[in-house]
User: What shape does this take?
Amino acid sequence: MKLLRQPYFWLIVAFTALFAALPFWNQNITLRETLVLSAIYIILATNLNLMIGYTGYVNFGSIVFFGLGGYFTLWLISEHGWGLYPAVLFAGAVTSILAFLLGLGILRLRGAYFALATIGINEAVKDFVANFEAWGGSEGIFLPFTAFRAMGGPAKALWTVYLLIVLVMGLSLLLSYVVKRSKFGLGLFAIREDEDAAIVLGVQAPLYKSIAYSLSAFLPAVAGGLYFFKNGSVVPEEAFNLHLSIESIVMVMLGGQGTVTGPAVGAFLYERLRGILLTLPSLSNFHLVIAGVLLLLIILFAPGGLMGWLYRVWPGLRRGLE
Amino acid sequence: MKRPILEVDHVTKAFGGLLAVNDVSFTMYQGEILGLIGPNGAGKTTLFNVINGVYKPTKGRIVFDGEEITGLPPYRVVKKGLARTHQIVKPLNEMTVLENVVVGACFGRENLGLEPAREVAREILEFVGLADFAETLAGKLNIALKKRLEVARALAARPKLLLLDEVLAGLNPAEVGRMLGVIRKIRDQGVSILMIEHIMQAIMSLSDRIVVLNFGEKLAEGRPEEVANDPRVIEAYLGDPEMAKRILEEES
Assistant: This one.
């Protein structure tokens, strides 16, 4: 595939550039913080889609990658004096390798059993970290203020981290796109449709699934590192928040699993919706109720999500809009 | 000299105490069409599953094209050049017919890249008469077309040996005729074919030789007319061979 000749590639680039530039327009910090959250959601949903949408395995504990990325990064920076860049890359790589090894085991499970295992892993890791003294136990890790000095002070560091998170968002979309158009992606889709048939047709399913699982861990781990660096601290409850795992599934389903555009659109819309609902004073966590109802409605009435609906209305879109 | 393409060597497959396949041996030769018949539950599909690696045999060996493949997983077996179809069709529903066949070409013996695989897939859709449905979602095909898709996907792997599991079942006479034509064309390309079939007329006319299974054991082996007149085979199918003979005589 000649990537540079694909219009969709340039769409991703343009979208990412727009995202990066928006808050710089008038140095709008509120807008920046909203967009950071949108970008994080897009990263989580887009990478989760590699499992749910491409491979057909519902990962209920995808947030564990995000949390581990955050922990590895902050630990390396605060305890070992690493810089942010090597720390997040290392965090991503280690999380990815862990996911690969884990995948070889738990991806033998199918359907609901796999989903349950992924919840178990997230909870087990959360409990482990909460009792792991080297990572601060239940109090987590706090970055010393000096950590931001290398990046020209906190104010400047936050802008840099914003750009980095947006970059990771762009890379996530690109990864989704490249995988979808590749032979590897074709193998994943075959597994999604009928794993036994795929194996008989020659797809090395155990390896393919583990690679997909591992790929879906890398960028969320990097994003976790950047996000918790930006926050200056990481604690188990926030790093391994199962709610966010489930909300990511809603985003993927809302936008349309198995497409590249869908999960990103779903994540963006969900973030907007959540923002509105969170400001309602009387109902805390009401967005979770909405998320649950939304998920139910999508699965029952529109399993293809927004993209599925669009493809039905304009079948021609299937060709251009991945 | 005929070269063996597949040797099934004293293969046993047990599920708990049940011997689904019991000490079955036979050899098939390059370019041959070998029919595998037997009453329901005789162990035919189980034997297919052992041959292509879905099940590991409890005992015995499978030798394909001079190389032992016993216990290899199916995705390795197909890369060696041994492809199969399923009795209960397994289309990749949400993918197009073309994509289904591309999967076969991509991950088959030649391990092609996407672009060459698409070329091969189009060629094969033409060959089995599915070209008009290339862009249709596989789940939307009727049963006859789904059977043809099974064959197309298996062929896309460019196999040396093709296992066909009841590709004629559920087809109307016109469709059976078309499928028989496809099978003959495949054989003419030099592909060896091992096929399970219940439609006797078809299997008798197509096969060079026939192996009969009953209760997991090999009951008979030989040319179609030999097998058809074997009293043990008739008994297995109809119960009492004397009665069977009477029925046959009355018929003629």
User: Anything to note?
Assistant: The radius of gyration of chain B is 18 Å.
